[in-house]
Amino acid sequence: MADQRSALVIGAGIAGIATSLLLAQKGYMVDVYEKNISAGGRCGNIIRDGHRFDVGATMMLMPEVYREVFSEMGLDLDVELPVRPLDDIYTLQFDDGTSLSFTTDPKRMEKQLEKIESGSYSMAVKYVKTGFGLYKEAFDRLLGRNFTGFFEFFNLSNALLLIKLKTYVNHYRYTSRFFRSEHLRMAFTFQNIYVGQSPFSAPALFSMIPAAELSEGSMFPAGGMYAVAEKLMAKAVELGVSFHFARPVTRILVDKKRATGVLFSDGSEARTDIIVANADLPYVYRKLLPRKGKSRRIERMKFSCSALVLHWALDRQYSQLGHHTTFLADNFREGLDTIFRDKSMGDDPCFYIHAPVRSDPSAAPEGCDTLSVAVGVGHLDPGHQEDWNLITEKARSAVFRKLKTIGIEDIEEHIKFEIVATPATWEEALNITRGSVFGSLGHNILQMGWFRPHNRDRRYRNLYFTGGSTHPGNGIPMVLLSAKLVSERIVNEQKQQSGRE
Fold first, then answer.
1. Closest by CA position to 493, among listed 471, 470, 465, 461
2. Mean pLDDT in residue range 249-254
3. 3-state SS assignment for residue 253
4. Which 3-state string (H, E, C) describes 348-411?
5. I need a surface site. Which of 149, 152, 374, 443 has the fewest CB within 10 A?
6. What does the alpha-carbon distance between residue 31 and residue 25 come to, in Å, rounded to a whole number?
7. Cα within 13 Å of Cα(72), Cβ side
8. Are 39 and 233 in contact (CB under 8 A)?
9. What is the mean pLDDT of residues 63-78?
10. Which has the closest alpha carbon to 377: 343, 426, 427?
11. SS3 track for 87-99
């Protein structure tokens, strides 16, 4: 096709793959260049000696967003991807030995909540109903649309919307209106860590996360979360997208107000009509583009926290662990302050354990187990130099100590091998600025919507962005939505440009 337009995508994360697919559907000739030897980014996996570890996300939250974007790509999620609903989204373990299974079964949930605090179930129902309403409103008017002009965001309607979305009160204080129990306040706010923030500073809008969990449930795909990347990539290839691995981009080539192509680490170049950067946005401005003023402004923004992950291959299984088990410490606030203020990790950290074999036996050899332990930690900060080897040792000891409280006494003796990911690992392997693995840029209200870095550069008008560090934000549902939004914007703007020519 002589007049077929070309697009080049930097990075084969979920958003990059999805964007390539959506553009190919619209007739673009698309090439995707990835620095690593495989796709997926933070939705990648590690396979060793029959053990399969999900690198990042460990369940499919907000399944309706998956269904919507998959449908846009001509895919029926429920047909294309074998998934299993998680009846218990996770089990929470508290320091006093009590536990709470976050479940979509209302009768089980009522029994558990009432045992912790009399009258709490009716309050939980109200909390979830209100939070799910915020979720729907936020998606319809804030997260699920492009903002291409100043007054599309700054108007009376949106000012009232921000009040309605409870952006004026922090999530923990808001949750305290519903529950007296500290355990329940923790249970309905710790999910803020999904987007790398503290419930003591994040707006109550994020009550939408536990509300969406309990309203829509969550799922786990056969083959692990990497199966999402595999399915999208297979569809993209079917549509003619070309993927190129181990091809790091070292510079975006520009001429006046256009991005003209990219330079690779081997000195070769590729030219294109459109560039979509799925690489971490702060990294792109800092390393790949000549304009340093924009990079300095982005560097002054708030960054999300990071995660220390211990991947363990075990030669046995422990029935005490479900698909997800989360340990919440009584010093909940102190631990979060250490993460966000001190950029470190507390002495008694909260953490969760992912045991995918519970839902997919193929994640480990028969009779063995595959565990990933994720501990919230501070991001890399020159003003807070940390010894990550020491912190890893401290985290490992804390996890062993907590596991003993649920009857797992000998796990150290059954670890066949361990793979560790620190903030430095995230930065080096995936070019994530400061190792801030939850979308790099934080999600406070002044870094959302119009305030978040836009999905098209202001100067280079054919340079676009997709992924967790641009609009609408982090998490697989959000980056799928990011791909949908940026693809729509590209197609619309290129049509307008063609009409002017």
1. 461
2. 98
3. strand
4. CCCEEEECHHHCCHHHCCCCCEEEEEEEEECCCCCCCCCCHHHHHHHHHHHHHHHHHCCCCCCH
5. 149
6. 14
7. 21
8. yes
9. 94
10. 343
11. CEEEEEEECCCCE
Q: Please give the Cα distance from 120 to 245 (Å, whole number).
A: 52
The per-residue pLDDT for range 420-478, each reduced to its tens digit, is: 999 999 999 999 999 999 989 998 888 888 889 999 999 999 999 999 999 999 999 99
Strand partners, 370: 313
Torsion sign, CA atoms 407, 413, 414, 415:
positive
- pLDDT (tens digit per residue) in 327-344: 999 999 999 999 999 999
Reported for 358-363, long-range contacts at CB under 8 A and 24+ positions apart, including other chains, are 358/321, 358/322, 358/323, 359/84, 359/86, 359/220, 359/323, 360/84, 360/220, 360/222, 360/223, 360/224, 362/52, 362/222, 362/223, 363/51, 363/52, 363/224
- Reduced to 3 states (helix: H, G, I; strand: E, B; else coil), residue 460 is coil
- Residue 298 tokens read as 């982005």
| Joined tokens for residue 438 | 């939850």
CA-to-CA dists, residue 489 to 23, 242, 313, angstroms: 11, 22, 44
DSSP 257: T
CA distances to 124, 167, 189, 288 from 178, in Å: 7, 17, 12, 48
Closest to 193 (Cα-Cα) out of 420, 59, 378, 385: 378
pLDDT-derived band at 2, boundaries 50, 70, 90: very low
Look up residue 454 and give its DSSP letter: P
Q: Which two tokens stand for residue 400?
A: 């062993």
- The pLDDT-based confidence of 501 (bands split at 50, 70, 90) is low
Interhelix angle 120-138/156-164, nearest 10 degrees: 160
362: phi then psi, degrees, rounded to nearest 5: -70, -5
Distance of CA 131 to the CA centre of its chain: 20
pTM of the model: 0.95
Show the tokens assigned to 6. 């070309």
The per-residue pLDDT for 448 is: 86
Q: Which residues contact 188 (CB under 8 A, 6 or more apart)?
A: 124, 127, 175, 178, 179, 207, 210
Q: Which two tokens stand for residue 455?
A: 């999905």
CA pair distance 95, 307, nearest whole angstrom = 22
- Give the strand pairing for 258-264 and 249-255: antiparallel
Please report the pLDDT score of residue 271 as a whole number. Answer: 98
Residue 41 CA, chain-centre distance (Å), reads 11
**What single-letter amino acid sits at 312?**
W
